[in-house]
Structure formats: C-alpha cells, structure tokens
C-alpha cells in the first residue's frame, strides 16, 4: 500500500475530535484555558473484553487496580475536549499554538494504536489531501522516520504515564470504568482541580492500586460475565460521568 498526504489546512481534523494528550500536554491545556476529557476503559485478567492479539499492547498501557475481589487493568486517556472547533484555532483555521501543539496533532493522520491501520476513508481530510504531496506510506511502511519517532514517543508516554494517571483519577474521585470493547466512561473534571491533581500526583509516591474501581456496562449479559469474574459492577445511574457505548444497536 502506498499513500501520499499533504495537509490543505481545512481545519477539519481540529474540529469535533478529542485529542489524546501526554501529562505535560494535559497540564499545558489546563493552563491555556482548555477543557480535558478523561476517557476510561478496562479489561479483566482473564482477558474478558480484549482480543488476544491486542493484549500485549493493552497491558503495557494499563494500570492494575482493585475491583471487587478481583483486579482490572485500566487504561486512562486524557484528551483535549473539542466538541466543536479547537479553542486554539484562529479565524483562518490556523493553530495558535502550532510550535507547541500536542504530539497527536504532529502525528496526524497516522494512528497511535499499532492495531489500527491508516485508512483515509475514516479521516476528515478532503480527497485532495491524499492526491498530492510527499509519500507517507510505501509498501505498507511509514517513510518519514521523524514521524515514526513521534509516534513511538506518544506510545511510550502512554505506557510510562499510566500509573500517575490512575493516581490522578483516584484524587479526582474517578473510579468507574467501562469494559474494553463495550464502551468508555467519560469525565469532564473541573480544570483547576485537574491541574492540582496532576501536580500533587507528581510529587507523591505512586500507588495505582489505591482506591477500588467498578465497571459500568451496556447490558445485563455483559454485567453477569464481569460479576462472575469477581469484579464490581455499578448499579446506580451515573453522577459525574457519561457512559459511551460501543455496542451495536
């Protein structure tokens, strides 16, 4: 597969997308007056909710936490909350923080997850973006080695920062997760509290297993499987989060 790509500056990738952030980027986003969304998913030690081929990648970016009489491996994403245009776009759809934009913005249109191949059909870029410009992928391999390094930096941060993210979640009272493949739980924390939690978590010894987590699930059939594994399942309606289901209707 060969793919060419050239950004045409349409701004569509900066609109309606929640951009994953490293801890430093999340702290910067808070300082700049932006909102961060916290997205949480987890799987169980027996592999429930996780395809076998994805297990190694998922384990490396997850923290082990307590849930009922079992454990869960929870993955936490801090992302720039952009339900509309990114607040850093100017009137001409140009980025006001271009020189310090997040890693994921620099990586676009490539994917961070190694199990998700680049598919132009899933991108918002107009057709002309893929018709001209330098070669991005040749023979299925990424050509730009600097871009490859940025992708690895992003993945490495995802792995190295998960323990501190779990600590931050405990500090903010975030302790309900979705099952991987079934959905996400989504939180919009107060940003002053979020920034303070980052600073506090970085200055204290880390204990990602502090606090107990519970699962919010899409249906009783999935809930019964999680309960049978010994994990805790929430039964009351969400108060401080939204559940985003990935289950087909």
Counting structural domains, the number is 1
Supply Rg.
19 Å
Total count of strands: 11
Uncertain segments: none
Distance between the termini: 33 Å
Structural class: alpha+beta
What can be said about the biggest beta sheet? 8 strands, mixed
**Total helical elements:** 7
> H/E element string?
EEHEHEEHEEHHEEHEHE
In helices, the fraction of residues equals: 25-40%
What's the rounded overall pLDDT mean?
92
- Percentage of residues in DSSP E strands: 15-25%
So what's the oligomer here?
A: single chain
Shape: globular
Keywords:
single chain; 249 residues; alpha+beta; 8-stranded mixed sheet; 3-stranded antiparallel sheet; 7 helices
Task: Explain the overall architecture.
By secondary structure, this protein is α+β, with helices and mostly antiparallel strands. It has one domain. It has seven helices and eleven strands. Strands 2, 3, 4, 5, 8, 9, 10 and 11 form an eight-stranded mixed sheet that branches. α1 packs antiparallel against α6 and α5 crosses α6. The longest helix is centred in the middle third of the chain and has 16 residues, at 145-160. It starts with a strand and ends with a strand. The relative contact order is 0.22. The mean pLDDT is 92.
Write the layout of secondary structure elements.
Layout: E1 3-4, E2 19-20, H1 23-31, E3 36-43, H2 55-60, E4 63-67, E5 70-80, H3 103-107, E6 135-138, E7 141-142, H4 145-160, H5 162-172, E8 176-179, E9 183-187, H6 191-203, E10 214-216, H7 220-228, E11 242-245
Parallel strand pairs: 3-8, 8-10
Antiparallel strand pairs: 1-6, 2-5, 3-5, 3-9, 4-5, 6-7, 9-11
Helix pairs in contact: 1-6, 5-6
Protein name: YkgJ family cysteine cluster protein
InterPro entries: Puta_zinc/iron-chelating_dom (IPR005358)
Pfam families: CxxCxxCC
